[in-house]
Amino acid sequence: MSKAHSTQTESAQADQTQTDETQAGDAARTEDESERARDGEARTCPECGGRLRAEDGETVCAGCGLVVSEYRIDHGPEWRSFADDDRNPKRTGAPLTRSRHDKGLSTEIGRSTRVKGRKRRRLARMRRQHNRARISTKRERNQVYAFTEIRRLTGALSLPDRIRDHACSLFTSAQNEDLLRGRSLEGFAAACVYAACRVAGVSRTTDEVTEAAKATADEQSAAYDALNRELGLPVGPIDPAEYIPRFASELDLSGEVERRAREYAAEASERGLSVGRNPSGVAAACLYTAARDADADLTQTEAADVAGVTPVTLRSTYTDLRDDGDE
């Protein structure tokens, strides 16, 4: 009796186990089918039903060109792997930058006010030793100082990162050509920033750079002359029209005045009125002339101050513009 009851119990348990496995298998198949259905829907265009393809982080329909998704998040690893470079080259890190003497590859030991006593002194010794190893030659020390000054200057002048990187590249080229001998690092840093602005067509005057720099105007001028002479900078005459948008914004002039000033600047260049003259002064004269045409409230002193020239200089260009216009 007991043996028969035990056999029935085992049979019931086996049937229950088989039923559970069957239900689990059915659920798994249902889930797989649902997932395949979702994948099938995801691979078709919601507009035309065409095939989708992924490229450059975007999912685009090959038929109608509809962008289904973009800016996909990279779910790859954020850690850096050096042990298995051959097998797993995937790693991320900070980008290289020309504004650091080591391209931004080195590390720094940070500071903290929570560390006290012996541990703080030990960290200070480690920091000194680390800096000595990171900056071991005079050339690297000069680069660190000059690049720091260039970063400060570009920040003070609200210049983009491309100007900063180009200025650092110019300083490195000047070092390679041995142009720094007998000249100040501050002057060369300011000259590199001004040269990068000239090459990129960004309107900044020498007075603006000198005002923000730690060097004198003579030091900056001598360094820029050496850069231009020895490196052959691809710079040409400055177009006065480059200064007009910034000057118009600082003087709070209307768009109509700015547009008319651009026309005056183009006329001045065509007639040779800007030859031998300060381009920022020509731009200020064009703005003043356009403001007079529009009856805007702008004095010669205000226009001259924003350009860093004297009212006499502005008045000379203004007179020539009016004379040519009358003819």
UniProtKB/TrEMBL annotation:
Sequence repeats: 148-231, 242-323
Protein keywords: Initiation factor, Metal-binding, Protein biosynthesis, Repeat, Transcription, Transcription regulation, Zinc, Zinc-finger
Protein's UniProt keywords contain Zinc-finger: yes
Organism: Halopelagius longus
Compositionally biased tracts (Polar residues): 1-11
Biased composition annotated in UniProt, kind: Basic and acidic residues: 28-50, 78-89
Bias (Low complexity): 12-27
Binding site for Zn(2+): C45, C48, C61, C64
SUPFAM superfamilies for this protein: Cyclin-like (SSF47954), Zinc beta-ribbon (SSF57783)
Single GO BP term: transcription preinitiation complex assembly
All copies of domain TFIIB-type, residue ranges: 41-69
Functional summary from the UniProt entry: Stabilizes TBP binding to an archaeal box-A promoter. Also responsible for recruiting RNA polymerase II to the pre-initiation complex (DNA-TBP-TFIIB).
Family from the record: Belongs to the TFIIB family.
InterPro entries in UniProt: Cyclin-like_dom (IPR013763), Cyclin-like_sf (IPR036915), TFIIB (IPR000812), TFIIB_arc (IPR023484), TFIIB_CS (IPR023486), TFIIB_cyclin (IPR013150), Znf_TFIIB (IPR013137)
GO cellular-component term (any): transcription preinitiation complex
Transmembrane portions of the chain: none
Protein name as annotated: Transcription initiation factor IIB
Molecular function (Gene Ontology), one example: translation initiation factor activity
Superkingdom of origin organism: Archaea
Lineage: Archaea, Methanobacteriati, Methanobacteriota, Stenosarchaea group, Halobacteria
